């Protein structure tokens, strides 16, 4: 019986509104669902995105973790760096293949695109043993050029090829014929990525499988082949047509419900989620008064006192003398100057154990009113383990709304800044931590946010 490879791209949604912990939770659930491949988008923030992939690699043992690259050479290096500890890693070279796409996104003519694909795949193969070539907008590409590009990628070392009907421009029977030709010409594993704009993605995919395609890209709550619908088709029709998938059907409904809840827009009912600069539209300068700054702070989800809003406004004006202040800068300012409270908990020391053959563990020692408090925990990566150990000491689990890491200085001894945002009782509390050690900065940021919650709990 033919095995259909399920490659899930839920985390490749364009909006990318998931927090750090939400992305880890989705990856964890997809692993439990027994997805063959878990696709992640191209690295956009080298520190946080690489950390995310490495953290996921500590608990993903069966699924392949696939990271996109291809827009430039640096993206390939970043993808390889992120997968350095993955048990099963894959670099996915994604490039547009239609004439319009090549011109608009890559500024390349067909001949130059062929050279680029050859170079990109060869570079990826030199850094990772498993490389996939993904032809975006393939159904609108010149058929002969598409075949030439695919053969170039395969000759360069790609073990998997996938083609995308990005425009949803083909009916299922036409797409099946299209997939059949690709499968016959490629000589390697061939996958399909079908847009569900017309509601035909599942039909396109299943018919392509019948014609020789062996991998299907799915998503939960996205615009590709709906995971649940495709899984149902395989389960109900697979025996008759001679194919199956390794999906954990017994847990599927529960897991899809969990992931669906995370993806759902209803999540916004809990409060304003953390937003990127582009999404929030926040841009402050020295001319903005305290009311404008307070409105921007509220837009990020904070509920500050008049005194804290005054402190934030003063700091915004100071920073804005040199440059405008966006959402990320405003987040950091709030974490640094607002709701400054005495340290209910103080970090004394921490020990982290991590590796690619052991579960990450953390031993944290905090002090409170002269007493030493120790927590030991295992987690999905060193930072998660540290946060769980802190929660164990405090005796309360807070909702991690967002987690960001960025470099303040450059070089081998670069100083990193961590921002942790916790949600408690409907309010948002942020903490900032600085250290040459990313884990240390993250622990300090988490404790800073916790101290603000504890202080407000006992003094308001």
Keywords:
Double Stranded RNA Binding Domain, three-stranded antiparallel β-sheet, 23% strand, eight-stranded parallel β-barrel, 460 residues, 16 helices, TIM Barrel, alpha/beta
Task: Give structural notes.
This protein is α/β, with parallel strands linked by helices and 460 residues long. It has three domains: 2-269, TIM Barrel; 273-337; 346-459, Double Stranded RNA Binding Domain (2-Layer Sandwich). Helix content is 45%, strand content 23%. It contains 16 helices and 19 strands. It is globular and about 70 Å long.
The level of helicity is 40-55%
Terminal-residue CA separation: 65 Å
Strand order of the largest sheet: 2-3-4-5-6-7-8-9
What is the beta-strand fraction? 15-25%
Task: State the CATH architecture of the largest domain.
Answer: Alpha-Beta Barrel
Assembly state (oligomeric): single chain
CATH class of the largest domain: Alpha Beta
Mean pLDDT: 87
Structural class: alpha/beta
